[in-house]
Amino acid sequence: MKTVKILKVMHILSWIVFVGLCIKTGIILTSYFISIARPEYAKNLFEGLDLSQYYTHSFWQYSSIVGYKVLLFSLEAHIAFLVTRLLNTLNLEKPFHESMHQLMTKISISIFYLWILAIIHNAHVQFLAKRYNFSMELFSGDFIFLAGIIFIFAQIIKRGIEIQQENDLTI
Amino acid sequence: MAIIVNLDVMLAKRKMRSKELAEIIGITTANLSILKSGKAKAVRFSTLEAICEALDCQPSDILEYKKD
User: What are the chain B neighbours of A163 within 8 Å (beta carbons)?
Assistant: First the structure.
């Protein structure tokens, strides 16, 4: 019963995280479009996110940095959505199901994309920081570790499905 | 698969219907159908014993090995 309660709480939390990330992405995109007409908005895109130095240097550099942030938050929102689906389809009576394996694989692949995005973003920002002496804010590069762990879990689930199928077909 | 289940042959010999056998041995008709079709991955000794008792036969009358 404790597990059921914990999973219910996690389901609600994942929905909150999903909605929060969608709102965050939306606000950054809106602030970006406003900043095209009013450059002072680049100083505070969302919760003190200041990209004004990129804006004053080059509008395209600024747009690409905003693009990375939007992509990052939308990917995170996608992962949160996958987690809500995972918790929604989870059946504790028969937890090893093909949909569970597919969703976990999708989550690990999405985190892997997040890692690639973080590498590209960090390389770009570091290049700009070195060349134009900008202050930089890097994305975390630990996503690959997380993706690996979830991928391993997905493989365990896959084996669990095979065992469960064998069990179901034992008469 | 190399193991062939001759349950339908034995049922025909004993003039018994699948539903009847399923009720006697206490498994569902769906599971008996899985067993008859050879889709089952494994058979419990208790199930085999119940089938042999119900059909008054030996396990060798139900299971047969044929090289692929």
Answer: none
Nearest to B47 among A165, A169, A171 (CB): A171
Chain A, 149 to 168: residues with Cβ < 8 Å from chain B are 165-166
Give the three-state DSSP class for B44.
coil
Cα–Cα dist B31/B22, whole Å? 9
Q: Find, in chain A, the residue whose alpha carbon is nearest to that of B40.
A: A169
pLDDT tens, per residue, chain A with 171 residues: 788 899 899 999 999 999 999 999 999 898 888 888 887 777 777 777 777 777 777 888 888 888 998 999 999 999 999 999 999 988 888 788 888 889 988 999 999 998 899 889 888 888 888 887 777 777 777 777 888 888 888 888 888 888 888 888 898
pTM of the shown model: 0.74
For residue A89 the two structure tokens come to 């389809």
